[in-house]
Design a protein that fits this description.
By secondary structure, the protein is of the alpha+beta class. The chain has a domain of 64 residues: Viral Envelope Glycoprotein, domain 2. 48% of the residues lie in helices and 22% in strands. The chain contains 3 helices and 3 strands; from the N terminus they run ααβββα. It has a 3-stranded antiparallel beta sheet with strand order 1-2-3, with helices on one face. Strand 1 and strand 2 form a beta hairpin. Helix 1 runs antiparallel to helix 3. The longest helix is centred in the C-terminal third of the chain and has 29 residues. The chain is globular, with a radius of gyration of 17 Å. The C terminus is likely disordered. Keywords: Signal.
């Protein structure tokens, strides 16, 4: 795979990212204030897991490096929630494919 192709793919992913929905877009307007309050509790040593569960958006907060779940909350999904989670899946799939291409390109160089 040529370096040009990798640069082109990164450029396309960045352009898509600029138009991307944010996590906040997945939360219904009625729940945005509570969402903001919840997000303000996240510290720099924590990370999030966000997914759909029982027709609600669930956000788990985990402590790093133990990976222990320390807090969870459910929020009413917005009409854009399904698109947000589909977008996140597509980004993860694209990054996984990109990482695999990068590994094979490095192997070709060696």
């Amino acid at each position: 795979m040529s370096p040009f192709y990798l640069v082109l793919k990164i450029t396309i992913l960045c352009a898509i990212g600029a138009m991307a929905l944010s996590a906040q877009d997945a939360i219904h307007a009625d729940d945005l204030e509570r969402y903001e309050e919840f997000m303000n509790t996240v510290s720099s040593s924590q990370f999030l897991g966000m997914y759909m569960e029982s027709a609600a958006v669930k956000i788990d907060i985990y402590e790093y490096p133990s990976n222990e779940r320390v807090q969870s909350a459910h929020f009413k999904p917005s009409p854009k929630a399904d698109r947000y989670f589909q977008q996140e899946k597509e980004h993860a799939d694209a990054l996984g494919a990109w990482a695999a291409c990068g590994r094979s390109y490095v192997a070709e160089l060696n």
